[in-house]
Amino acid sequence: MRIVVDTNVLVGACMGTGASAAVIEACIHGKGMPIMGNALLSEYEDVLSREALFDGYRLTRAERFELLDIFLAHCQWRMVYFTWRPNLRDEADNHLVELAVAGGADAIVTRNLRDLGSMELRFPQLKVLAPEDFLKEI
Asked: In CATH, which of 3.40.50.300, 3.40.50.1010, 3.30.590.10, 3.40.1060.10 is domain 2-137?
């Protein structure tokens, strides 16, 4: 299954959240094909750099970026040539849909079901799944 992994799932994995960590693990073991683009990578790097967000969790900054590097080695890179805006209430989430469409993704895996589920433009092949639902499908 080709997927776009939202930043909140990667953050959850770094924090040790079970289903989010299992999604990243599944991708590393080839049970899902994550699609990556420039905007998503920039967002990953920005959020993983926020020390206050990870205060009290076991992974250090270096370990978070090591996990990111391992994850990236299993990603398929796609360029986004077309934008589909306005589409979502939160402008910052539109890049996920654009990457998913450009990469022919089956799903966006996210904890933000409310915002991503409210797309104005519908793409029939594209599902929005919580990490737990993705794990059930693989």
From this structure: 3.40.50.1010
